[in-house]
Amino acid sequence: MSVLSEMLHNLVSRPVTILYPKEKVPVPQGFRGRVAVIDEKCIGCSMCSLVCPSHAVTMVPDQREVEFKGKKLVRKKRPQIEVFKCIRCALCERHCPADAIYMKNELSSSGTDREAVVT
Amino acid sequence: MPEVIVPIGPQHPALKEPVNFRVIADGEKIVRLELDISYTHRGIEKAAEQRTFIRALPLLERVCGICSHSHSTAFAKGVEELMQLTIPPRAQYIRTIIGELERMHSHLLWLGVAAHEIGFNTLFMWTWRDREAVQDTLEEMSGNRVHYGMNEVGGVRRDLTPSQVNAALQRLPNLEERITKYVDMVQNQETMLLRFRGIGKLTKEEVLKYGAVGPTARASGVDYDIRMDDPYLVYADVPWNVVTDTSGDVYGRTRVRIGELAESLKIVRSCLEHLPEGPIRVNPPKTAPKGEILSRYEAPRGELVHFIRTNGTDRVERVDIRTPTLANWTSVAACLVNQNLADIPVIVAAIDPCLSCTSRITIVDKGDGNTGIVTWDELRRRSRLRDRRQEGA
Amino acid sequence: MTDTPLIIVYIFLFPGFLFLLAYAMLFEFLDRRIAARMQHRVGPPLFQPFADFVKMLGKEVIDPQGVDRPVFDAAPVIALAAVMTAFLYIPVVSASPLAFQGDLVLVLYLMALPTIILFVMGWLSRNIYSAIGGIRTVTQMFIYEVPFFLALLTPALMAGTWSISEIVSWQQDHLWFMVLQPIGFVVALIGLQAKLERTPFDIPEAETELVAGPWTELTGRRLALMHLASDVSCVTGCALIAALFLGGPTIPWTIAPVWLGWICGFFLFLAKTLVVLLILSSVKVATGRIRIDQLNTIGWKYIASAALVQVAVVLVMNSIRVGA
Prior knowledge:
The complex is a heterotrimer.
Chain A: H1 2-12, E1 35-37, H2 47-51, E2 57-68, E3 71-82, H3 91-95, E4 101-103, E5 117-118
Chain B: E1 3-8, E2 20-26, E3 29-36, H1 44-49, H2 53-61, H3 68-82, H4 89-117, H5 121-142, E4 151-152, E5 155-156, H6 162-188, H7 190-196, H8 204-210, H9 215-218, H10 226-229, H11 250-273, E6 291-299, E7 302-310, E8 316-322, H12 324-335, H13 344-350, H14 355-358, E9 363-364, E10 371-372, H15 376-392
Antiparallel strand pairs in B: 1-2, 2-3, 4-5, 6-7, 7-8, 9-10
Chain C: H1 4-12, H2 17-38, H3 48-57, H4 69-87, H5 103-124, H6 128-159, H7 164-173, H8 177-180, H9 182-195, H10 207-210, H11 220-245, H12 258-286, H13 292-323
Helix pairs in contact in C: 2-11, 2-12, 3-11, 4-5, 4-11, 5-6, 6-9, 6-13, 7-11, 9-11, 9-13, 11-12
């Protein structure tokens, strides 16, 4: 009986489907989306490259003067992340001492270029 | 009809993951069953040996999508115990909350899949709709709907903000109401009763003989739940009950899982309301001392065992994963004989198979095309032969 | 209405084949939409069945090795032709112009053809899933066909005629058979659900056990035509039950002028067949699949005995009326 009553109740109420693309799923704060780098904070310590489980981060040479914990220093490298190797585990965000690499709130969206990188 | 081989798998609509049942059937009755579970073997145990603890955790989390937190918690728990590290109470509560939420979403998923296997798609749609509430909670807390990434050696990675706690607590009453409705539905729906009652019956002695674990065993009256018998995290401090049933058939397993849903909801609510303050992690040492440990965890499907051996470096020397589905396969092969062909998907779904966890290698003999497993003595003999050949060459 | 051009319009345009095909696709759309809404989903848009049909016609036809190709090609066409012909004898706007004594038997026979064709295709498919599915189709047919025929026989017994159109006009002067023979109505609905192979009786096509049963090796235009045959038999079955138990396109008082009677009859026909479809869809959504041996038990214990009870009641009622 409970099945029948629920069926009839559902027949007259609005379906629960979210009609993408007219309606979008609300993405919560802290969702692990696409990886991104804040260039002015990175100190080139390679920590992200060392902890990445899927070897998605390679360090490329790049000189830049950055400020870290009140001191000025010159970094030698910066990370280059292959977007479609990233498994969005956010270990890089956790272990970065300068809070320079982080996961954005937006969805990681698909693409056609397998070698696409984020630097 | 004479005996025919009905291939269920490796690709079949009844299965969510590839497994090969070669069912030898006489008309509609099953005579024999040959099982091959090697299709999703990925070499995870070997890969984990070459990674530091930090990088091994995401790997082990991805053994299975539905019980991912179980694997990462079992591993982190084992390594922490080897390092003789105690994690702060807030971290333990958070791990418990995520673990029980995972159990809830897994059991709701199972209920839908079991209903789908008997053609009752309505219940499938409804349970998966309610599962979305649990998934939304997990997404808010951990950042992802599966593969939560909450654990690290030494504690948890993310903290729960008060707004997340409140949002989770607000979703619970609706879920509680739906769970009561499902209890009622399962007990009164005629076709479910017809298809589930008396199918795949396992007595208590058979369960103990074949080593079945989890809700499969608890439905036959075996009162074995790691959370009660070998408590870890906060299960010793939170009031909850082990759910058992005495019927031993698929109907009993359904009732056990729905009962566990209700219990998990109680545990989650109690933990969320009594979340202690404090830090969420401690800094672990870089290396783990030499030792071996057996880390047990009650995954949604049963008892999950991680055997971890470390040797003083920052990697594990050996991790061996015995998943609950692996322990339950023998009981399936045993109770499928003399059942109807139409009951295969029901009995297989009743142990909640998760083949991503299970895979063990099958050896295919190229010469005569036979498949089988290799015994320990045979393996030693073959490796000795190979060494001798290499030395001689 | 016996001149040839009108008969040709009746057969091929309205309410014959063209209307029938359009109505069959509308039926499938409504069935899927209602089922989806009951499950709290959205469901397909209006043209989905037509789009599926056109798409499947364009797909590649794959023949398993060693299969008998002419039979495989002809079989879905025969099934479709059979149910389409059966529809012509069921009153849609008023009495069918092709009616004759005994057309009830002809309709029942033609509606049984798709099931046999499905068995033949399952048997010929050289595939273990199809063979088992075909055997289940025939087993199921033996179980439900007897009660179904008996339940559809009782209106003919009480009305004293073997023509569907005359049974409909009998109901116009007396009560509907749904009121006079409620047991028969329920048995006929159950039998129709089993004939159309819908849950809880979709045992031959059990997706989780047998891939697709006898439908496994159907591809391309064969699948399109067989699926269309299944839809058309749904319409024919619902129209048959609406005609025999719900009074067809008539209401208990005559409407004059005649053309207004035809229009009202048409809308009544639509309404009544849709009511039967609603009942069938609800049953489909509310239950799961049962096993073939359980169907055997339930079919012979309850459904067949209910049909026999109904026949006995009708015979008693007939003798009372004759005697009085």
